[in-house]
Design goal:
There is one protein chain. By secondary structure, this protein is α/β, with parallel strands linked by helices. The chain folds into two domains: 6-183, no CATH class; 264-321. The chain is built from eleven helices and eight strands. It has helices spanning 14-19, 29-33, 37-48, 96-115, 178-183, 185-202, 207-221, 225-230, 232-294, 299-306, 310-321; strands at residues 58-60, 67-68, 71-72, 75-79, 82-89, 129-136, 145-149, 166-171. The strands form two sheets. Strands 1-4-5-6-8-7 form a six-stranded mixed sheet. Helix 4 (96-115) links the parallel strand 5 and strand 6 (129-136). Helix 10 crosses helix 11. The chain is elongated and about 105 Å long.
Length: 322
């Protein structure tokens, strides 16, 4: 068997083949900002209190041009003995631990295949420690961080069952996780830029105007200046494209819901008509049987005339005599 390139282990396996042909999505700003190893390494060091300096020690394994579980896979990388998944969220999702568990399972599948490990052998197979962190800048979170558990989804509750996956959610809205922001300047810049957009929207600006204004304001303040000056049009397009995609999916959901209700009503009407016709036929048959009985006809003769089984006519007769 040919050895697979270790650097591409995450690309191999049946799951990758299923995913690689999905439609292409433009990178969101968060992933765009941390696409450079130096910025990603700074973020990792800030989170872990580590002092890694050698960029070659960080191996980016983010799946390009695919959607994993209908979500953008933001940043995934190996460093030391850890497999890290960093995701950005602007809307709350209670299923993040489940998504993380499925993601890591697929990554481990690719790793085992690339190393040709025998999971049925006597020797323990070594795996990198999985770490799942979500950077959240949406509404509703009032603390610096939360830890979500996969087992919360089980009927028996947290800590039950034989399987667990945790997801640490970090609040990166303005004013939260100050110590982390001080250690990672790029993350602080992203938080400030996002906050500027939201503040402009609260002032009544349209989405596009809010983004334009936030870009100009941040350039003046020196926030993300190196990115916004050189890539202003690209950043604007990324943000508005992401917003339009979310709006598009919400519209599809609403239209699908309305269509479902309409279809349900139509099927309900059809079912009602069918039930009405069935009941009408049954009443008509009962009336015919009653008239024939009044004329003194025996049950076998009635069954023959109405082209029904004798047992059916007997049941109707018993019902009429009840």
């Amino acid at each position: 068997m040919v050895k697979r390139n270790k650097r591409n282990w995450f690309r191999h396996g049946s799951w990758w083949k299923r995913l690689r042909n999905n439609r292409k999505y433009r990178d969101v700003l968060f992933r765009h900002l941390f696409r450079e190893k130096k910025d990603l390494l700074e973020l990792y060091n800030a989170l872990n209190g580590s002092t890694y300096q050698n960029l070659e020690e960080l191996e980016v394994i983010t799946m390009e041009d695919v959607i994993f579980m209908k979500m953008k896979n933001d940043l995934s990388f190996m460093i030391g003995n850890t497999l890290n998944l960093y995701e950005h969220q602007s809307t709350w999702n209670a299923n993040m631990p489940l998504r993380g568990m499925l993601y890591f399972a697929q990554q481990f599948e690719g790793l085992l295949a690339s190393r040709e490990d025998d999971i049925y052998g006597t020797k323990r197979v070594e795996l990198p420690t999985p770490v799942y962190i979500v950077f959240y800048n949406g509404a509703g979170m009032q603390t610096d961080n939360l830890l979500l558990y996969l087992s919360d989804a089980f009927p028996t509750g947290r800590g039950s069952g034989c399987l667990e996956c945790t997801c640490e959610v970090l609040n990166i809205n303005r004013g939260y996780n100050r110590a982390l922001m001080e250690k990672c300047h790029r993350l602080w810049e992203y938080s400030e830029f996002s906050s500027e957009i939201e503040e402009n929207i609260k002032k009544g600006m349209r989405r596009e105007e809010a983004v334009h204004t936030a870009i100009d304001t941040c350039i003046e303040k020196g926030i993300l200046r190196d990115i916004l000056v050189k890539q202003k049009a690209e950043v604007l397009h990324m943000i508005l494209t992401e917003y339009d995609e979310k709006k598009h999916f919400r519209t599809l959901f609403r239209e699908g819901k309305e269509e479902g209700i309409k279809e349900g009503m139509e099927k309900g009407i059809e079912k009602g008509i069918e039930i009405g016709l069935t009941r009408g036929r049954e009443e008509n048959r009962r009336e015919l049987v009653r008239k024939k009985l009044a004329k003194g006809k025996p049950v076998p003769a009635i069954a023959e005339e109405l082209e029904e089984d004798v047992s059916v006519i007997e049941e109707i007769v018993n019902d009429l005599n009840a």
